[in-house]
Predict the structure of Protein RRNAD1 isoform X3.
Amino acid sequence: MKTPPIRPPNVRGANSSATIHFFKILLIGLCRLGLEPLKETDIHGIWKQVESFAELIGPYWSLRAAFGPLLETFLLLDRLLFLQEQGSSIEAVMLPIFNPALSPRNVAIIAKKLTQM
């Protein structure tokens, strides 16, 4: 799909740089998803609906970045301990499966049911 120009074509009410910036981000997001650019949409109206939340993005993203890996590790450990508590019939380990620089979700829980003889 051809990337549309990053400029607001006939944006109604686009009288602020924040609205134009919002429109640029909107176009980039739509292109990444492979969707057509919006035609007759009131971008200014959409921006006015979400503008009050714009100041929350920074703190929210910081909290998510700080506590996300901690929470994911906690959930993985909880699931690992659950498997290990099932008795001697299951062997479970948690291993990194690739470089964490590629993705922070690089850990896998590997479990094996032991045969009872």
About this structure: The mean pLDDT is 80. DSSP finds three helices and two strands in the chain. The first strand starts at residue 90 and ends at 96. Residues 18 and 32 are 21 Å apart (CA to CA).
